[in-house]
Amino acid sequence: MFSRKYYPNPAATDDKIPKNTPLTLTVNMPGDPGDAEPLEVKGVVKWLSVNPSISYKFRVGVQFLPYGDGRGCNPGHVLEKIKLIEGIYGDG
Fold first, then answer.
1. Are 83 and 90 in contact (CB under 8 A)?
2. Average pLDDT over residues 7-17
3. Of 27, 10, 4, 3, nearest to 82 (Cα)?
4. CA 57-63-64 angle, 5° bins
5. How far are the Cα atoms of 24, 26, 61, 65, 78 from residue 48, in angstroms, in the given order?
6. Using CB atoms within 10 A of its CB, is residue 60 exposed (0-12), middle (13-18) or buried (19+)?
7. What are the respective helix, strand and coil percentages of the chain, to the nearest 5?
8. Residue 31 φ/ψ region, left for φ over 0, alpha for ψ in the -120 to 50 degree band, beta for the rest
9. Three-state SS across 49-90?
10. pLDDT of 16 higher than 60
11. Is the dihedral of CA 87, 89, 90, 92 positive or negative?
């Protein structure tokens, strides 16, 4: 399991994270409408590419695990919280 804090962009890193590396992203939302508990979302690195800019070395593509109550799933309440935040801050 890969663990490191990245700010402000979780899709950016100076580490060359191998494809298929499992990871957990901890997401803190400014002005979070719910409790102040950060969201933890589990996923797997699906791609890595060199970033042409100088701010960080790599861009990372993450596929999140499914949401549900089963083994190997992200908790369903995390998806509900994401939907709530999207409803407040989304473009739709």
1. no
2. 70
3. 27
4. 120
5. 16, 19, 6, 18, 25
6. buried
7. 15, 35, 50
8. left
9. EECCCCCCCEEEEEEECCECCCCCCECHHHHHHHHHHHHHHC
10. yes
11. positive
Residue 4 has a pLDDT of 55
Structure-token pair, residue 24: 């957990």
Backbone angles phi, psi at 59, to 5 degrees: -105, 145
The pTM for the full model equals 0.71
Kindly tell me if the per-residue pLDDT of 8 is higher than 80.
no
Q: How confident is the model at residue 55 (pLDDT cuts 50, 70, 90)?
A: confident
Domain ranges of the chain: 12-89
